[in-house]
Amino acid sequence: MGINHLFELLQEKNFDFAFFYNLESTGSNPNMIYFTGYNGIGALIVPKNKKPILIVPKMEYGRAKKGKIENVYAMDKKKLFDSINIIIKKSNLKKKTICIDSANFNLQFFRHFRKNFKGTRIKDISLDCLKFRQVKSYEEIQTMRKGFNQADKILSKAVSNFKDFKTESEISAFLEYEAKKQGYGISFPAIVASGKNASEPHHEPSNVKLNGGFCVIDFGITYKNYCTDCTRTVYNGSPSISDKKIYEKLLSVQKSCIDNSILGGNCGKVYESCVSRLGKYSKYFTHGLGHGVGVEIHELPNITINSKDKLLEHSVFTIEPGIYLPNKLGIRIEDTLVMEKKPSFLTRLSKDLLIV
Ligand SMILES: [Mn+2]
Description:
The chain is of the alpha+beta class. Helices cover 34% and strands 23% of the residues. It has helices at residues 3-13, 30-36, 61-65, 80-90, 107-116, 126-134, 138-160, 168-181, 241-260, 267-278, and strands spanning 17-22, 42-47, 53-56, 71-74, 97-100, 121-124, 185-186, 191-194, 213-219, 221-223, 226-227, 230-236, 290-292, 299-303, 316-319, 322-325, 329-332, 335-339, 343-345, 354-355. The strands form 6 sheets. A 6-stranded mixed beta sheet has the order 4-3-2-1-5-6, sandwiched between helices. α7 (138-160) crosses α8 (168-181) and α9 packs antiparallel against α10. It is elongated and about 75 Å long. Residues 229, 318, 320, 334 line the site of manganese (II) ion.
């Protein structure tokens, strides 16, 4: 698991080493986090037949040493490539073919890279890396279960305190504050969308009075570098019979999509089954049905129209159908599941319509 996939690939294809980097102090490189357990500035070199090397600024040495990589070097030169070149020479690494991850490689950096590795063949392994990360190890699933437990508790606390909140932004701030207070990050800014605002799936919470009607709350934390993702829709006020009906409709569709998510199944087919179950509401369902979750909030598989991705054993994915009636209402119900013999729930909050 993990970095061993990468060694296999390098050996099988006879590539000399794989190269990853992150230079943004506020950003991160998901593959570097995945392979090293270290989230920060630095470069990672994974040679075909030698131990991986992590090069970090002096100030990050202590933090980097706590990760999974034994060979950590503190940069002794001001320029990253000066240090990299010294280490490559010292380690006797060939550089005939170098693998890079184009999804986390910017053009400016690529120009420096090219200058430093003239005459080298470059192979993009970004898709390979996404595929490695799609199938989780036992340890990753254990970590994710803990993360989802914590996130469930926070979301449930926000829902039970709903009456104390006056605005959408107050609820999103509460969710994020609780996550921070407990030492977690957030996997994306919490979405709270009340009344007609919920008809935009990615509404940005505002500090105006909460609207009555459906209120969509989409929230996730990061726990030990792994994301969580869950959406619940509550009702603020007293729902009409047609409100209840539309909610029940979406809930039954969501449950049937989970039943249709079978081991080895085709993701495009699961999406299609959702659209056909939604019937007349399908034109009000404007996004993908689900996505993989891991170090990144959106990873493989893609559960969208025409997706050829498969629901592999030990993949973690969301099922999140929604109905969005323009300028009127929005409802989304999202669970995250791990594929065992059948899908097993990571999110455990009740999905019965909660009237707050
Ligand atoms: Mn999601």
